[in-house]
């Protein structure tokens, strides 16, 4: 298992430089102009065409810079889901991705988000996000393999193997070590797949679900409602969004293969940010849980002084640095 704790010192806090005039504003996808949407998808395509910065011997499937982000998510899957690390880790992960789009591909905007309940009516396949136009994030899948066939990313190759859900369940039920399979980073190219699921979004991501999520009184209850399944077809808003994407976006390990992952997790971060803002004094630094998925294998409670890592994507940071979107390395807000 790759441990989350690291020894690197954290960088100087960015909140000293974060002011209203230089704060990035993250907007909902449908509120972007057509030009802004194309600029974003073009930047993602740019990242998919840049060379990988990972060791090719260790990560043979990482054939480009975008795949570096997928490989990193695979590497830490057992320690960044269903635990206390989930929210702060993904907050910085999305920020690192946003920074790569800007610094390496010349993107001028901020990371957009996917406001789930606004897409419940009308069908995902007809929405501005998934309609397959030049101003979308690509189409639904088609054919036997549910390959995305129209719009941005229709020629994009998914590089890594498929991970069956049994890997997670076997680890939990057998009190496993949390070690990822030896074949996790093999190069197994396939078409980029989606299988849009309107029902999953309707059941898990409607306005009532969001109201319930934001009304949770503690961070532990917020996390549980966000991500813990409660029965057939009920995955919580986080899981519901992944199942609604289907295909590659529904694979717990390789879900960042679908570029909409980053809009989805910007919305997860938005939900956490809003929840924190309701009682900022007590919620800004609220934590609950350990440092491994379902506490398997058993791990310590996460503290604000623990260091979290993204491997070669960026420097290690303390949990404390990741709790405020206008402090630590961050300087953004949601519109």
UniProtKB/TrEMBL annotation:
Name of one Pfam family that matches: Tyrosinase
Coiled coil: none
Signal peptide: 1-16
Origin: domain of life: Eukaryota
InterPro entries assigned to the protein according to its UniProt record, in alphabetical order: Di-copper_centre_dom_sf, Tyrosinase/Hemocyanin, Tyrosinase_Cu-bd
Signal found in the keyword field: yes
MF annotations from Gene Ontology: metal ion binding; oxidoreductase activity
SUPFAM superfamilies, alphabetized: Di-copper centre-containing domain (SSF48056)
Keywords, ordered alphabetically: Copper, Metal-binding, Oxidoreductase, Signal
Domain Tyrosinase copper-binding as annotated: residue spans: 81-98, 258-269
Keyword Oxidoreductase among record annotations: yes
Designated name of the protein: Tyrosinase central domain protein
Source organism per UniProt: Aspergillus sclerotiicarbonarius (strain CBS 121057 / IBT 28362)
Taxonomic lineage from the root: Eukaryota, Fungi, Dikarya, Ascomycota, Pezizomycotina
